[in-house]
Amino acid sequence: MRRFVLKPILGLVLAACLSAGVAQAAEAPFIGTWKLDPVRSRLPDAMKVQRRGDATYAFDFGGGLETVVVNGRDQKGVDGTLLSVRPVATDTWIVERKQGGRLLLRATWKLSKDGRRLTDYFRQFGSDGATQGTDYVYQRTDGGTGFAGDWRSIKETMKSPTLLQVKPFQGDGLSFISLTSHVTRNVKFDGADYPDEGQNARPGASSSVRRVDQRTLAITGKYAGKVTFTEDVGLSPDLKTLTLTQHIPGHDRPNVLVFRRT
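Given the sequence above, the corresponding structure tokens read:
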């Protein structure tokens, strides 16, 4: 599950969508304030949960296998984090990830009576105290039982207002400022990689961009020099809608974020 490996619910997606840039006069259509349309947007996800015996489970959220005992205690996770899974009832688990003593995310999982669907009330917490939330509904794709199984999302409901502001940058670039995740990207249309900036920016993350035409951009995002996503950014003919279609390696369904000009 991308969200559980610090990509976030919207963390990586928003960082990616803030990477666009064009040159000189072609900047104008992108400049302004944009608000996410959650009804038209999609953040498809998938995860695997394997039972290893008694209360021990292996979780694959997309960032590598993590094996923990489901007892509510903090245990070693990926990227130097601590992962805990607490059983509240036979049909309810609470999943938390921490780092450096700070709670990064909390997800409440609810299993349907027939065991075929799982609802995930996911909340991610920024260092500034801001909360982003998405409610996911997953469907089982194998013959597992209980929480163990292969899960694929069939519905995602974004609960947090998401705003994006675009401003000119040094004459031949753009500043894309996330008013939600507090990540700023200053990008010029020169093919170079530019590092992320801002309170919640991930150190080592950067993006480059090329222009396909005056209303379409192609973006490549990197972390520590490795490609983490490619993205198509397109403006509607009336310049009132901004659509970002993001492809992440290893995932067969793209993220689609639709913004409306405010």
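The chain has two domains: 19-42+160-261, 46-158. Try to locate this feature in the token string yourself.
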